Amino acid sequence: MSTARTALETEEHQALRAAVAALGKRYGRDYMTTVIREGKHTDELWAEAAKLGYLGVNLPEEYGGGGGGMAELSIILEELGAAGSPLLMMIVSPAICGTVIARFGTEDQKRTWLPGLADGSLTMAFGITEPDAGSNSHRITTTARRDGDDWVLTGRKVFVSGVDIADATLIVGRTEDARSGKLKPCLFIVPREAPGFGRNQIDMELHAPEKQFELVLDDVRLPANALVGDEDAGLLQLFAGLNPERIMTAAFGIGMGRFALGRAVEYARTRQVWKDPIGAHQAIAHPLATAHIDLELSRLMMQKAARLYDEGDDIGAGEAANMAKYAAGEACVKAVDQAVHTLGGNGLTREYGLASLITASRVARIAPVSREMILNYVSHQSLGLPKSY
Fold first, then answer.
1. Which of 1, 49, 54, 250 has a C-alpha 20 to 30 A away from that of 95?
2. Torsion-angle region of residue 218: left (phi > 0), alpha (psi -120 to 50) or beta?
3. pLDDT digits (tens, 9 = 90+) for 144-203
4. pLDDT score of 259 more than 70
5. Three-class SS state of 193
6. Burial group, residue 384, by CB count within 10 angstroms (0-12, 13-18, 19+)
7. Distance CA 132, CA 337 (A)
8. Burial, 1: exposed, middle or buried (Cβ in 10 Å; 0-12, 13-18, 19+)?
9. What confidence tens digit (pLDDT) does each residue in 92-121 have?
């Protein structure tokens, strides 16, 4: 399929797209479905992407990264997704955790974690969602209290990706403000084998290499240096990670939508029922064209969000990142649905690899924040309308 993206990208970004697309093509959807069927992880692709410098492209060069930003990291995830083999942990490990530590971590934390996150030898998960809090971060009940020089964490998290393969999890907890007595968000690095840190895998209909977990923190004792950054800058640090999360979720959705659309277009070009290929009929062609337009528009907003974020405009990036995530989620779901419908019965077979995307595509609508919460954000922040909650 032709695309309008090249006119807005530098030669370096175009070369990066081409290189990552070539890597993705060597693995592809068959690799991913085999990994899922055998209950394995994407170790081979993760290791090769790391060796090529893709996993740490957004991290500072002085800590082993590529010195780039979300513009480059989102290109990598999108192109791997377009090849049918996205790496979901890229959203969590380098984009959220790597960004937060690079921006706010102590020198010791940066030297401990960033080189490993960049070369793929270390992985981090991210725990924010709770059973009774959902999208309301103000209702987070995981608390951290001081005990001498240590911190003690207690609480629960749900839908935390990849905890079983992560060396540590960046946990969002709340501490008491000494001046006001109110609880404020803070981030803590919790090692996988920390005493009292339990995990239970959630039985999901979603088929992916990355498993989902419920976490139980039962008086998990952590040293003082487990706290990331400044105890008084909690919200700023938290949102520094959530904007990259939304940009990368958009890349995830755009990549998946492109993969599904590519399969459908190839099928529509060659599938012949009457005298012409089915793609010659407007009832087939127009919905596919619409899906392509929606994906291209989503990419434009994602590129805007990435650029604003990389330029240090957190507020502008917040609005654009939410819009990009919303647009990409909708475009992804519609592209997958139309792709399956284009193939008819074949769209539900394992051979064509589209049926499993019906469930997977909804992730971009639901996580890490629902489309309704994004509409709330745009209503208040962009339009100035009063809050309903």
1. 1
2. beta
3. 999 999 999 999 999 999 999 999 999 999 887 655 656 778 899 999 999 999 999 999
4. yes
5. coil
6. exposed
7. 32
8. exposed
9. 999 999 999 999 999 999 999 999 999 999
Considering the chain, what percentage of its residues have pLDDT values greater than 70? Answer: 94
Nearest-5° Cα angle at 240, 248 to 71:
40
Secondary structure (3-state) at 329 = helix
Distance CA 362, CA 206 (A): 10
**Residue 159 CB partners (closer than 8 Å, separation 6+):** 129, 202, 212, 213, 214, 367
Task: Identify residue 293 by its one-letter amino acid code.
Answer: I
- Distances, alpha carbon 88 to alpha carbons 41, 45, 85, 389, in Å: 11, 12, 9, 32
Comparing CA positions, the residue from 357, 356, 352, 351 lying closest to residue 334 is 357
Measured between alpha carbons, how far is 156 from 86 in angstroms, rounded to an integer? 28
Confidence check: pLDDT of 240 > 90: no
Structure tokens at 184: 């404020």
52 CB-near residues (< 8 Å, 6+ apart):
19, 23
For the chain, give the longest Cα–Cα distance: 80
Angle, CA of 44, 160 and 168, to the nearest 5°? 65
> For residues 290 and 103, what is the distance between their CA atoms, to the nearest angstrom?
39
Q: Give the integer Cα–Cα distance in Å for 171 and 168.
A: 9
Q: What is the pLDDT of residues 341-365, one digit of tens each?
A: 999 999 999 999 999 999 999 999 9
**Gyration radius of the chain over CA positions:** 21
CB 118 within 8 A of CB 125: no
Contact 153, 217 (CB under 8 A): yes
pLDDT of residue 2: 47
Q: Which two tokens stand for residue 2?
A: 């032709």
Distances (CA, A) of 202 to 50, 90, 191, 199: 28, 21, 20, 9
- Structure-token match 């030297």, residue found: 111
What distance in Å separates the CA atoms of residue 124 and residue 220, rounded to the nearest whole number? 18
